[in-house]
Amino acid sequence: MLVAALASTGSSARETNAELKKQVIEAERGFAATMKARDFDGFTRYIADEAIFFGAEGPLRGKGAIAKGWRQFYDKPQAPFSWEPEEVEVVDSGTLAYSGGPIYNAQGQRIGRFNSVWRLKAPGQWEVVFDRGSDFGPPQPKK
Q1: Cα 138 to Cα 102, 112, 115, 135, 141, distances in angstroms
Q2: CB neighbour list of residue 90: distance below 8 Å, 6 or more residues apart
Q3: pTM to 2 decimals?
Q4: pLDDT at 98
Q5: Rounded to the nearest 5 degrees, what angle is found at the Cα of 132, between the Cα atoms of 127 and 133?
Q6: In angstroms, rounded to a whole number, what is the distance separating the alpha carbons of residues 57 and 126?
Q7: Which class for 111: exposed (0-12), middle (13-18), buried (19 or more C-beta within 10 A)?
């Protein structure tokens, strides 16, 4: 009976970790593409309602605060920076993922690194729940 019910709903076996990693890579690339395309509404669709983005002024908590804080990066005709995934890992349960990679300035120079945590919202649909960028700079003296 259970097999018949699963067959009728179109459910299939759980996706492999490699398939889930591919989904997160595609989500991260789509998220980054919103910056290049100047698509602010698209950007906000990737953000979880309860997300936290860390910044120089402290954390932005929630989708509304993140949208307000990031709007400035979408207002001008040229994107001020870009990013791309370089490293992606998905937990064994398949519900959370990490992505990280380089951040580039408008001239294409590597200026930092981003680190994001994604959550599976629905089959094949991922949303960012944490995001933090870091700048490259000279080593700080140890205290």
Answers
A1: 17, 12, 20, 10, 9
A2: 17, 20, 21, 24, 96, 97
A3: 0.84
A4: 98
A5: 125
A6: 27
A7: middle
Which pLDDT score, from 0 to 100, does residue 134 have? 86
Helix, strand, coil abundance in the chain, percent, nearest 5: 30, 35, 30
Closest CA to 121 of 52, 32, 5, 23: 23
CATH of domain 15-134: 3.10.450.50
Q: What is the pLDDT of residue 9?
A: 35
- So what's the pLDDT on residue 13? 62
φ, ψ for residue 22, nearest 5 deg:
-60, -40
The model's pLDDT over 96-133, given as tens digits with 9 standing for 90+, comes to: 999 999 999 999 999 999 999 999 999 999 999 999 99
What pairs with residue 128 in β-bridges?
47, 118
Q: Give all strands (DSSP E) within the chain, no chain letters.
A: 47-54, 60-61, 81-83, 87-90, 96-105, 110-122, 125-135
